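Exercise 3.2. Students should predict the tertiary structure of the chain below and write it as structure tokens, then compare their answer with the key that follows.

Predict this chain's 3D structure.
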Amino acid sequence: MQTIKANTYSVFFNEEGYSYLSELLLPTKYSKIFVLVDENTSQYCLPTFLANLATEIEIEIVEIENGEEFKNIETCMQLWQALTELGGDRKSILINLGGGVVTDLGGFVACTFKRGIDFINVPTTLLSMVDASIGGKNGVDLGQLKNQIGIIREPKAVIVIPSFLETLSQLEMRSGLAEMLKHGLIYDKNYWNKFKKLSELDGDDLSALIYESIEIKNKIVSEDLSENGIRKALNFGHTLGHAIESYFLENESKTKLLHGEAVAIGMILESHISMEKNLLSREEYHEIKYILKDMYDTILFDKNDIEKIIELLIYDKKNEFGKIQFALLDGIGSIKINQEANNELIYKAFDDYKSS
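Answer key:
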């Protein structure tokens, strides 16, 4: 797979990534290497990564607990303290080896430590390969509210090693798949169509789809790094999806949802809103609904759940002047940003989601 050029960095694949690191990580350029991992990547990915990392610079491993609930400022404070105690300085570099929590949080820690040190993302989950590690968004949650604190600053590089996916559960793979499906829905109908016969795809097909998904996100971000325009398209499914994810995260009586599971629900709901606003045909909506419901479990929502989820929408970071902003489909493969939808449309979408 050829290297993908972004605004200020490149996305490398497999051996090209390791070759890039060997050329970059010189004692004349960096004083110390920190590798951030969580409990899972420490066990399943770190040994392979270190075995392929050719450098004479001292390496320190810093580990955090696994899970979205640890993507917060308290974990950042622990990491800032660890970097300080381990001799980190302005010439240190942080390599984030992990999923979306590790790359989001690690990037934020790097951007703020000593007013900013270089960092590299090495995503180990499908979700982080096609979404979280790409585009320079770094940040943490505020309580249960997703990604409220953060900064946009691109990494030094992203290195994608698809073999790390062999360590993932099917549930984690499906979570990442949601973001790939989203890229087709908002940008490329032909790409979306490739997922209609998912069971027939093999490993080579998946690698090609991952590459294409990264290309789509990179094209959008390259046009609008600061998210003032077209980059908002990437939020399709996330306005309601993030609210659902936050609600299930904070409610002890609910089973936590992975990011992709919540976004898949959000995409169905926001596709229904798109249809109600005459942007999406009924046929296209049904196609989206049934393909996604075939891939992801249907979650039960009662009236109280929906009310609480709608209340959380006010905290969505896309909102402007107190108005909730949606990115809605304008047919499969196209998007309209800065769209409003009242609560009646949201309730109707939840009602239809319940039906088979």
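Discussion points: Residues 144 and 250 are 6 Å apart (CA to CA). The chain has two domains: 4-167, 170-354.
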